[in-house]
Design goal:
Layout: H1 5-12, H2 17-31, E1 55-59, E2 63-64, H3 71-89, E3 93-97, E4 99-101, H4 104-117, H5 127-151, E5 162-163, H6 167-182, E6 186-196, E7 201-203, E8 208-222, E9 225-229, E10 240-243, E11 258-263, E12 266-274, E13 286-288, H7 295-304, H8 330-343, E14 347-361, E15 371-378, H9 380-392, E16 397-399, H10 402-412, E17 417-418, E18 420-421, E19 431-434, E20 440-442, E21 458-460, E22 464-465, H11 467-471, H12 474-478, H13 485-490, E23 493-499, H14 503-518, E24 523-529, E25 532-533, H15 550-557, H16 559-567, E26 576-577, H17 580-603, H18 617-638, H19 642-671, H20 675-693, H21 698-705
Parallel strand pairs: 1-3, 2-4, 4-5, 10-12, 16-24, 23-24, 25-26
Antiparallel strand pairs: 6-7, 6-15, 8-9, 8-14, 10-13, 11-12, 15-17, 18-22, 19-20, 19-21
Helix pairs in contact: 2-21, 3-16, 9-10, 9-14, 15-16, 16-17, 17-19, 17-20, 18-19, 18-20, 19-20, 20-21
Length: 734
């Protein structure tokens, strides 16, 4: 065995990730082995290769192209790269496809903050100009994000990189939209939606944050009734009194009966409505309704064909129906309205400690103001039924399994999905809207000039799709559905790895849309990780000042140390508290590996004809222990228990290989008693452990591998070790 003096000189120095990682990544990239077409050198002639031509496909969750990667992204890249490197070393035709998401509203909010700092606002800007600015912004970010993904060691196929605004992606999204409209799964209607007055757009229910607050709860006299509300500012349009038809307390009141009463701005006439949705046990069992500003009230009004009057405009200001309060904000008007009602003797009592849930915008915390808007909606129940069948049949595996029950419950209670967004940034909705009757018409080729319902003038729909509508089609769009070889080869994908917190936003919608468009499930397994928290177990946020930059840690300790810190002990679905010292410990481990490699190579350079069959009894036992470990960890890797495998390898390398076997070998080599046995053992152990640690710590293992004598292949495409099929050093003639 021969090792160059230059290599020895490098090994004598401490391991330096800064000098190594960029060089190693370029080696991998230049090798071409990130692409599934490039098989590892050993697979063609190996009788052990049972996985050749078997695809393993992982589609990277598209990173939002609006900033830098955070610690959560670091976890994603680590877990997914472990999966891919392991499968590649097993001989699978691995495809890990990277991509970026335009991220619609999320990105526009980020850019709006940039505009604010510049003393500008999107309101009043030309839409095309704003779109161009945001596009340039995201393209600039994408270069940085790509370099950061590489910094994490991600062995993805950059030749297949996708962006959710690529022309072919937009084309497929538009085609899906038309097909769903043709199948009566998408409709345009005037329905109540969640509206943010600050951002001037609607949301789906999943994008709303529920916040518990303690506020005043007002009991008001409404003719002969007492009604209760936390929002007196919505009551100007209340002209219907609703009660349960079986409530004996109100049996004398008949459906449609008129009642005259004094109200906020003078006398009104109210109409009695009987509806089964009323909870007789809540309050007085009677309520007035505000159909324009409450979802439950809207549904009642729809059932009984009642008028719906708008009280609050899209900016959160009261309309002329509020009389003297018109033009005022809700915050300003509410106490003044109560004061007026008190003067009229219409306030029965005020509960000042009323706890209830207030719905707010998840980005700016502005209280959501429900509004009736003409929007595009997806009928979700037909899609959910097919998804439920596949999930309940076990065709999609969930890790951890409890997410399966959570998903089933959500799908069983799913509501229609508002996919319209009143923002510039995103994929435009390919439709025309009639100015006269409001009819929406799909127009992929921009040929419609007149309404097909009333012959009125039409204009292009200014809205864009909810970003989850396009990203919900990510698995098949990225693979070139329907006719590409990639789609035919790699779909359905094997694993969707992502955060548990977006299981409804994204994962479940991918299942539904994948089944609808392709007729197949989009992936066979869902692997869900938890949140990455700060050292104190708190959720990271810029406002708290506790955001941890993963690249500060990789710069300080090396990427391998960061990756090990992210995976060891991190069970799927649970949150990880990320502390500096956690990463530091694995830098020490990388140095330990480096020092062990120096010792092994220095003490085995004269090894000429090693034969594991000639081990002494002590070394035979160590050989068996390692083989037993390989059996166990291979099974655990197949079960996606990376957190366990990483910890086992760490402890074995340090406490068994370094502390016991290496120390024992020193004595044998010094005394020249069973020296060849010891030398063979430490060399073969090093080779095997480099392979098993490679998916977790790719840079330092690849660097050490490059120093092994007569090694012509890169470690990344070496064969995963098989128990009792041991690698031995080459003889001197190799």
């Amino acid at each position: 065995m021969k090792i160059s003096n230059g290599m020895f000189e490098k090994l004598k120095k401490p391991y330096n990730p800064k000098e190594t990682e960029d060089k190693i990544y370029k080696l991998w990239e230049d090798s071409g082995f990130f692409a599934p077409e490039a098989h590892p050198p050993w697979v063609d002639n190996s009788s052990l290769n049972k996985n050749l031509a078997k695809p393993f496909t992982l589609i990277m969750p598209p990173t939002n192209a609006n900033g830098s990667l955070h610690a959560g992204h670091g976890l994603v890249m680590t877990i997914e790269d472990i999966m891919v490197r392991y499968k590649r070393m097993q001989g699978f035709k691995t495809l890990w496809l990277p991509g970026l998401d335009h991220a619609g509203f999320e990105t526009q909010v980020v850019y709006e903050k940039k505009l604010e700092k510049e003393g500008r606002t999107r309101f009043g800007m030309d839409g095309k100009e704003l779109y161009k600015e945001i596009l340039d912004f995201t393209l600039a970010n994408s270069k940085n994000i790509k370099s950061q993904i590489k910094k994490m060691g991600a062995s993805c196929d950059w030749s297949r990189e996708k962006f959710t605004l690529d022309p072919d992606v937009i084309k497929t999204v538009h085609q899906t939209f038309k097909r769903m409209c043709d199948d009566n799964l998408i409709y345009r209607g005037n329905r109540i939606v969640s509206w943010c007055a600050k951002h001037q757009t609607s949301f789906s229910d999943l994008e709303i944050k529920d916040e518990e607050r303690t506020e005043n709860f007002y009991y008001l006299k409404y003719g002969p009734f007492t009604i209760a509300t936390s929002r007196p500012e919505t009551k100007f349009g209340d002209k219907y009194v609703v009660m349960h038809p079986k409530d004996d307390r109100y049996k004398n009141y008949k459906e449609g009966q008129k009642i005259k009463l004094e109200w906020i701005n003078g006398p009104i006439e109210a109409t009695i409505v009987k509806d089964d949705a009323i909870d007789m046990e809540f309050g007085t069992g009677v309520m007035t309704i505000t159909p324009w500003h409450d979802t439950a009230d809207f549904e009642i009004a729809e059932r009984h064909k009642l008028d719906k009057e708008q009280i609050i405009d899209e900016n959160g200001k009261l309309l002329p129906i509020a009389g003297e309060f018109a033009g005022q904000s809700i915050k300003k008007a509410r106490p003044l309205i109560i004061e007026k009602l008190q003067k009229k003797g219409l306030v029965e009592k005020i509960d000042e400690n009323y706890k209830h849930v207030v719905r707010t915008c998840y980005k700016c915390a502005t209280v959501i103001e429900p509004q009736i808007k003409s929007q595009w909606f997806v009928k979700m129940k037909p899609l959910a039924e097919k998804a439920l069948e596949k999930i309940q049949n076990g065709e999609i595996i969930y890790i951890p399994e409890h997410y399966k029950k959570i998903t089933i419950h959500w799908l069983e209670n799913i509501m229609d999905w508002n996919i319209s967004r009143q923002i510039v940034w995103g994929i435009p909705i390919p439709a025309k809207i009639c100015a006269k009757c409001g009819q929406g018409m799909v127009d992929l080729e921009n040929k419609i000039s007149k309404c097909n319902k009333c012959n009125g003038e039409v204009a292009q729909d200014k809205d864009t799709f909810d970003t989850w509508f396009s990203s919900g089609q990510w698995p098949f769009i990225t693979l070139g559905y329907p006719d590409s070889l990639d789609f035919k080869t790699f779909y359905p994908t094997d694993v969707m790895e992502t955060a548990g917190e977006i299981i409804f936003f994204w994962v479940s919608r991918m299942i539904m849309l994948g089944l609808y468009v392709t007729g197949k499930i989009p992936f066979k397994m869902v692997y869900l990780h938890g949140l990455v928290l700060d050292a104190n177990g708190l959720k990271m946020s810029k406002s708290k000042g506790n955001v941890i930059d993963p690249f500060v840690l990789t710069e300080k300790y090396g990427t391998d140390a960061f990756r090990m810190g992210m995976v060891v002990g991190n069970t799927p679905g649970t949150s990880l508290a990320l502390a500096d010292e956690r990463i530091r410990g694995y830098k020490n481990f990388a140095n330990k590996m480096w020092n062990v490699a120096r010792f092994v190579l220095d003490n085995t350079k004269d090894l000429t004809a090693p034969d594991p069959k000639n081990y002494d009894e002590e070394d035979k036992k160590s050989e068996k222990e390692l083989n037993d470990l390989i059996k166990i960890i291979t099974k655990e890797m197949d079960e996606y228990k990376f957190y366990i495998v990483a910890e086992k390898l760490y402890h074995y390398f340090w406490h068994t290989f370094a502390d016991i076997i290496i120390e024992r070998s020193k004595k044998k080599i010094l005394e020249e008693k069973n020296a060849d046995s010891a030398k063979t053992l430490i060399y073969t152990h090093l080779v095997t452990l480099l392979k098993t640690l490679h998916p977790f710590m790719p840079f330092v293992t690849e660097e050490i591998w490059s120093m092994l004598p007569n090694k012509k292949k890169i470690l990344m495409v070496e064969k995963w070790p098989l128990a009792f099929a041991r690698d031995v050093p080459p003889n001197k003639n190799d």
